Amino acid sequence: MDYIKKTIFIWVLFIVCIYCILACEFESLRMDIFSINEDVIVVEKINDIIKNLSFSYVAGVIFFFLSDTIPFQRRQKFVNKNVNRSLNLISNAIDDFSQSINNKTWDETIDPKFIYEDIFGGEYPEQEYKQKLPLNIISDMLKFANTINPYIDFIISQELYVNSKLVKNLEDIKLFDGMRYISSLSVDTNNIISSEELVSVFRDIIKIRSIILKHL
Description:
The protein is mainly alpha-helical. It has helices at residues 2-6, 8-25, 40-102, 112-120, 135-157, 164-175, 177-184, 195-214, and strands at 130-132, 192-194. Helices cover 73% and strands 3% of the residues. The relative contact order is 0.11.
């Protein structure tokens, strides 16, 4: 659909040229609005010019269709298979991550604060509280980021063949604070995070899952 939108002018003009050829050949198809009050010889010459230009354009569009459109559709079909596979792998990675965190599959019905409570075994603090992330959580987050980022980058790199809304959604995902935080983690530093920030990370992951599922 995006390809058609990008080349719509070509196909509209193609239809106009087809009409011009037919109108030049069959007087009954001519519209009065395009009538010219001139000598028959002049009208015939104008018709010949219009017809020849239209034939040239139609031939050009046919060549364009054979050399560009058909190969594009073939490449798009191949790319879409890999894109769908990547989306499924991203979805699986999110579910694997949530299972490793608290043995649950996160969806939009889950309150991220409950995830926090499952990890630390207590109620979510009303006031902001900072703590060091456990090494197993850091490890799971790094594995998660290293798994999905290449798939996201691959899909974005295929923007010529992929739905523009999907590309925009994935570009937005890369800018989520939660994804940027996870991608910046390192096991060699003291990763101190506030309770509010950690809950926000979980919220972003739930949102990412929802976005990905909409495109599957």
